[in-house]
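Work Package 3 (structural annotation) set out to generate three-dimensional models for the target panel prioritized at the project kickoff. During this period the team completed the workflow that converts sequence records into discrete structure tokens, so that structures can be stored uniformly alongside our sequence database. As a representative example, we reproduce one entry of 225 residues exactly as it appears in the project archive.
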Amino acid sequence: MSKTSSKLRYVDRDAAGKALPHLKPLTASILYGRGITTASDSDTFLLPDYGAQSHDPFLMKDMDKAVERVLEAIVEKQKIVIFSDYDADGIPGAVIWNDFLRKINYENFIIYIPHRHDEGFGLNLEAVEVFGKNKTDLLITLDCGITDIEEVELANKLKIDVIVTDHHLPVEKGLPKAYAILNPKQDGCEYPEKMLCGSGVAYKFIGAIIKKGRCCSSVGRARPW
């Protein structure tokens, strides 16, 4: 996608209108504030070609490993828990996963959204304990998990593989020992767009699964759909 500034700035509405005269004033001001100053760039931003302008999801660190684990779970009909944050970023990611799994007629999964006040942000030990008792095989976090070192450690003890998908900054004490971590902000990740939101990471993950799943028969595995 086209690169724009991640920081909004004071916008000169007259300048915005002159640069983007084909747009309504409010739209022109918003885009101008993001560093979009030509009609061509505005068209790219507002009418993207996702096939031609999106980065390869496999540029993201751990993507191959994460995709292989999900395909294994689907083929073997393992129990998957999608643990989504409760906010306006995490919930759309949960919808993406729900729609994808239902689309391929996969039934052995649950979407878990923690209670904002009773459980708080991120994984919690009580929920992980319940997942273990319910014989969960794979736990995928959405928009959270990058700081949940203790919770991921418990999941490992309970024989639950954890794939963390997040966009928040890692903490100084290190990363959780998850099976795989998808986060463009982690060290060593070559994915070019570092400002993906949590649902954006989920979207790229699903895209990679679909891309790899379509060619499963060519790598000696039955297609999962």
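The first helix runs from residue 13 to 19.
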